[in-house]
Specification:
The longest helix has 16 residues, at about 370-385. The protein has helices at about 50-65, 80, 85-90, 100-110, 175-190, 190-200, 220-235, 250-265, 280-290, 310-320, 340-345, 370-385; strands spanning about 5-10, 10-15, 20, 25, 30, 35, 40-45, 70, 95-100, 120, 125-130, 135-140, 150, 155-160, 210, 240-245, 270-275, 290-300, 305, 325-330, 355-360, 400-405, 410, 430-435. α8 (about 250-265) crosses α12. It is elongated. By secondary structure, it is α/β, with parallel strands linked by helices. The protein has three domains: about 5-235, Metallo-beta-lactamase, Chain A; about 240-380, Rossmann fold (3-Layer(aba) Sandwich); about 400-435. The protein binds MU-OXO-diiron. MU-OXO-diiron binds next to α2. MU-OXO-diiron (FEO) binds near residues 79 and 213.
Length: about 425
């Protein structure tokens, strides 16, 4: 039970190996669903398809002999929406409440036209259940364009959809911050600007509990959770330290990495984290890259390009709008080293990256020259403050325009008159200048 009127009806998934087909889930996954019992009854979201019967049984236990009036669909990704059609078979009089975009998706997923059984809500629309007055908050791209959150003013609860969620079942104890950070940067990380927009809207609400679609209900020190989301979505530095992400074919690049770690510690670095990209959870490495202020990339030139795991890693960073960090590079090559040049090129579109002056060039194995470069890189990284270099004087001024329909963000000096949103196809009039 969440409050006197709100009950938990979600499930834990311990059959899952990889969430969304790519994120390891050793502690399983929770798909949360809630019921608000009032004069009218609202069910908040469904769960993953495999757990239809368990969810329906949980609903039955919560409802008793009553039937729900509404199914509120906050997010159409199948981990939450898979049982909408099944729910409507059992409760045919229930009305589905969601955003216009979600109803398009319901039609596409289920071939179901709900035009006689739906309420389309926009940002700020309300729905009264009795005591509980629900206000809907659009949250496009957190994590899909149709997402809405729901605020219950009576119990001061924010139903936050995917936001503030984490990996792991509710019946497993683990570290919330670690698994929420890995979840955030893996799944929502690209959409920092959209998360910032939602956080501004939420700041006007008196929130006493957060009920996400994954992970536990949050109710103590909510400011700490909001602050973490603010740091993550603004690409700020959460922890002081250096992350080294590397690949190594015969161990020579690894030797350089271990030497660098030793030198960083000797130079007073407060934390050194090493990730072997061929063996670690790739998204743990991604999470670390966004957590700390300094990142060293060490890899081998391979097929006149980068060793594959490093290429994949940098791709994961750039597609998540990696920015605002200090970068050190270590390359290894036995005849034509060009890994550093390729890594720098791959990162060239990232904003506010400061590259260390020292690049370590290993020609097969460490020698006197490359060892000296490792020492110099360690000193340089320990001499720098985290985040973008202080000495930067020219701040590139770029405006950001958000598509008010789906949340996609355009960056540029001005908004082109012929702009067409690549996500939802809307034109110039749908865009608003972001603060
Ligand atoms: Fe939990 Fe975006 O689905």
């Amino acid at each position: 039970m969440i409050t006197n009127d709100i009950k938990y009806t979600g499930v834990n998934d311990h059959l899952i190996d990889m969430f969304e087909g790519q994120f390891v889930a050793p502690n399983g996954m929770a798909y949360n669903s809630y019921v608000i019992l009032d004069e009218k009854i609202a069910v908040m979201d469904s769960v993953e398809k495999k757990f239809a019967e368990e969810w329906l049984s949980n609903l039955k236990n919560a409802l008793g002999e009553k039937a729900p009036d509404y199914l509120i669909v906050q997010h159409m990704e199948p981990d939450h929406s898979a049982n909408i059609a099944r729910f409507l078979e059992i409760y045919p009089d229930a009305v589905v409440v969601s955003s216009a975009k979600a109803f398009d998706m319901i039609q596409n997923f289920f071939g179901t036209d709900l035009s006689t059984h739906r309420i389309i809500v926009k940002d700020g629309d309300t729905l009264s259940l009795g005591k509980h007055k629900l206000t809907f908050i659009t949250a496009p791209m957190v994590h899909w364009p149709e997402v809405i959150m729901t605020y219950d003013a009576y119990d001061k609860i924010l139903f936050s959809a995917d936001a503030f969620g984490k990996f792991g079942g509710l019946d497993v104890e683990d570290d919330w911050v670690s698994e929420a950070r890995r979840y955030y940067f893996g799944i929502i990380g690209k959409y920092g600007a959209q998360v910032q927009t939602v956080l501004k809207k939420l700041s006007a609400l008196d929130v006493q509990k957060i009920c996400p679609l994954h992970g536990p209900v949050l109710q103590d020190d909510l400011e700490a959770y909001f602050n973490l989301y603010d740091t993550w979505s603004s690409y700020g530095v959460e922890s002081d330290g250096v992350v080294i992400a590397y690949t190594s074919v015969y161990g020579h690049t690894k030797e350089a990495v271990e030497l660098l770690a030793q030198k960083l510690e000797e130079n007073g670095c407060p934390k050194v984290v090493i990730n072997d990209l061929a063996r670690c959870d790739m998204f743990k490495a991604v999470e670390d890259a966004f957590r700390y202020g300094k990142l060293v990339l060490a890899t081998t030139t391979y097929n006149a390009n980068l060793f594959p795991f490093m290429k994949e890693f940098i791709h994961h960073l750039t597609e998540r709008d990696f920015q605002n960090r200090t970068i050190g590079l270590i390359e290894n090559g036995s005849w034509a080293p060009k890994a550093a040049e390729i890594m720098k090129e791959m990162l060239s579109e990232c904003k506010d990256l400061t590259f260390a002056d020292t690049t370590v060039k290993i020609l097969s194995a460490l020698n006197e020259d490359s060892t000296a470069q490792v020492n110099a890189l360690a000193k340089e990284l320990c001499g720098r403050s985290d985040g973008p270099a202080e000495e930067k004087t020219e701040e590139k001024k770029t405006n950001r325009y958000v598509c008010t329909v789906c949340g996609w963000v355009y960056e540029g000096d001005s908004l082109p008159e012929d702009i067409e949103c690549p996500l939802c196809g809307m034109g110039y009039d749908a865009f608003a200048l972001m603060a």
